[in-house]
Write a sequence for this structure.
């Protein structure tokens, strides 16, 4: 599947590219952004940024995709969002998202996520979207719940030889939900 750039009322969601390496370095070396990303070490150099970019632009690996969230009004790159572990057979996917702190509380991530949820429903034929969120990440939990995700389980993630409890939030997509979600996305 080819993922396109997306435009919303206030945002451009652009496909990640090698031109984004300075932003990716800035984003994933930021202690506040990475505080709850308990699956990989923060980026410490440009090679780390390049590894992230390569993961998402590698032509054979369409089981994940990431967009850079850009504010239309000034072209500022604010964060990223996208898909992980797309299981085409079982019609499910995981989502991930991150936003620089100075942009929190403005509804940007909710606006971006509504668009990628619509892509999951309409183009990817996804029936279930999962978000694995560390239990202390209240902002992320609030966002997921506002988007209609429900608590569906929990598990421990091992990171730096320590276990961290993550809750799984799931958005179940049905034909009835599809029409409701699309009508409420703008």
């Amino acid at each position: 599947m080819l993922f396109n750039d997306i435009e919303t009322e206030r945002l451009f969601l652009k496909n990640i590219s090698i031109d984004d390496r300075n932003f990716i370095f800035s984003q994933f070396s930021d202690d506040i952004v990475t505080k709850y990303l308990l699956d990989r070490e923060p980026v410490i150099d440009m090679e780390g940024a390049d590894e992230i970019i390569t993961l998402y632009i590698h032509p054979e690996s369409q089981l994940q995709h990431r967009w850079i969230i850009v504010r239309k009004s000034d072209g500022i790159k604010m964060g990223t969002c996208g898909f992980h572990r797309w299981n085409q057979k079982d019609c499910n996917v995981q989502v991930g998202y991150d936003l620089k702190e100075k942009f929190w509380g403005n509804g940007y991530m909710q606006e971006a996520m509504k668009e990628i949820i619509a892509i999951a429903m309409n183009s990817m034929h996804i029936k279930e979207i999962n978000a694995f969120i560390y239990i202390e990440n209240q902002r992320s939990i609030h966002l997921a719940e506002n988007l209609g995700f429900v608590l569906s389980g929990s598990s421990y993630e091992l990171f730096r030889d320590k276990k961290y409890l993550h809750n799984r939030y799931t958005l179940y997509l049905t034909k009835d939900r599809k029409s409701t979600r699309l009508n409420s996305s703008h």
